[in-house]
Amino acid sequence: MEKHFKFTNSVIGLPLFFVVFLWFVFWLEIRFDFDFVQNGIYPRSFSGLQGVIFSPFIHADMKHLYNNSFPLIMLLAALQYFYAKQSFQIIVYGIIVSGCITWIIGRENYHIGASGLIYILFSFIFFKGIQTKYIRLVALSLAVVVVYGGLVWYIFPTPSSVGENSISWEGHLGGLLTGFFFSLYYKTPEYKKVIKYDWERPDFDPSEDKFMQRFDVNGNFVNLPEIEELEEQQVLLSYYTSSYPVIYELCANK
């Protein structure tokens, strides 16, 4: 399975390109005095649907962008290294699905920021690693929980998240649900454990195994009961046969 973990230029290039592009959009907004907030997700309005695509690239201020940049670099790099085959679908489809969820359940306000994508990556990497049961991916899941486990608290509405300029807990919840759904939908057969022994099979029956029959319920070694073999009765013939041809000559009785 180690051959599936390959370090390529995209492991570093993809996160850096994505984050640099976010800073470039923010620079355009400051340099030319644009207001991209109006292009965010505005729930249950037709014009607000454009935010499903544009909202992850729009941030309110430099602090907002700074707080999203480092988690994106780490999680995108982990996604590209461990799940390279699924990374494109997770990012693109994840932005669309989580954005639609936010558009449906969100408050009537503009929802912007790449935090929804962060929750998609966090959720997918955590749940997928547990599902594969592969030791390196399980370790990655535990590392993600240790570093970013505190993100879970921001998927619930709190008194500090109901203001006009507060965080979008709806976007966080949509990202978390999307990542969990994708962890179930996208299969990773390349990380499936190769069965080498019969006892690793799910339908293995110890009672039918000759080796396991040598042990009792307490794990003590015992001898198998001797199987009495029935001897076949040999039929004794009253005459003998020969495989050599016998030629008889008839002589006249003189």
UniProtKB/TrEMBL annotation:
The keyword Heme does not apply. The keyword Protease applies. One of its GO terms (biological process) is proteolysis. GO terms for cellular component: membrane. It is a multi-pass membrane protein. InterPro entries: Peptidase_S54_rhomboid_dom, Rhomboid-like_sf. The chain crosses the membrane at residues 7-28, 65-83, 90-106, 112-130, 137-156, 168-186. It is found in: Membrane. Keywords: Hydrolase, Membrane, Protease, Transmembrane, Transmembrane helix. One of its GO terms (molecular function) is serine-type endopeptidase activity. Residues 52-185 form the Peptidase S54 rhomboid domain. Belongs to the peptidase S54 family. This is Rhomboid family intramembrane serine protease. The lineage of its organism: Bacteria, Pseudomonadati, Bacteroidota, Flavobacteriia, Flavobacteriales.
